[in-house]
Structures are given as structure tokens and as C-alpha cells.
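Dear colleagues,

As part of the handover before I leave the project, I'm documenting each prediction I ran so the next person doesn't have to rerun anything. This entry is a single chain, and its sequence is reproduced below.
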Amino acid sequence: MLKEKIMENEYATLWYYPESKIVHHKFHKFIYGEKFRNILMKGADLFEEKGCTKWLSDDRKNSALPQEDLAWGDANWKPRVMNAGWKHWALLMPDKTAGKLNLRPLVEQYSKEGVTVEIFEDEDEALKWLENQHTTSKAGGM
């Protein structure tokens, strides 16, 4: 499957899959603050510009997010991706228990707001699941 590397640094990599309109981030180590926000905002840009509805989060190497980043995400990132038409989220949970506990409320929140969330252990399985989810997007449609 064709994928474009959008950005990469020591903390994370962000890809875009043009054929299936998937945004995919992979955290390489604990990430927070400006570096965390930059990756998410670049992904939100792709959602808006390319009409994406699917996100793959590989958070296995991350841990619990600081409260400031959670509040920032709720106020800044969430409205953008939800308004752009986010429908499917494949998530590889953090290895650390604190990170898992931190993400559980987000999984529940987004599920209640109409995002279909599936949790995976394997990145290929997560991608395969996302590819098989069919939706129509709001912008830059299919």
C-alpha cells in the first residue's frame, strides 16, 4: 500500500496513505508538549486537506500524557478532526500501564461521539482493519 512520510523526528513519524485516506502516527518514545502537538496538528491538516476519516495511532512507546496536552487536544485538535469527518480510529495502546489508563477515557469519549475505535496489538492488523472501513468523507471526498 502506498504511503507518504509527512514528517519524522526522534519522537515520532507521521504518514499519509492516499489510497485509503489514513493518517498514521507512530511514537518512538515518550512525547509531549510542542512535539506531540505538532504531530497531531499536521495530521489534522491532512484530515482537512485530503478528506481523511481514519487514524492509526501507534502509541506503544508513549506513556501518560500531561494534563495540559489532554486539555489542548480537547480544545484544539479534537474539533478539527471531528469536523473534518473522523470516523475510524485504530489504536495500539502504550506498553506502560499509566499510558493505557490515560487513553481509556479518550477511547470512551470518542466512541460516544461516533468514532469507531478498535484496539490492536499488531500494526498490520490495525492497518488492515482501517482499510476495510468504508465511509464517505466531508472534504476532498472519494
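The domain at 4-131 is CATH 3.30.750.24 (Transcription Regulator spoIIAA). The helical segments are 33-50, 67-84, 97-112, 123-131.

All the best with the project,
I.
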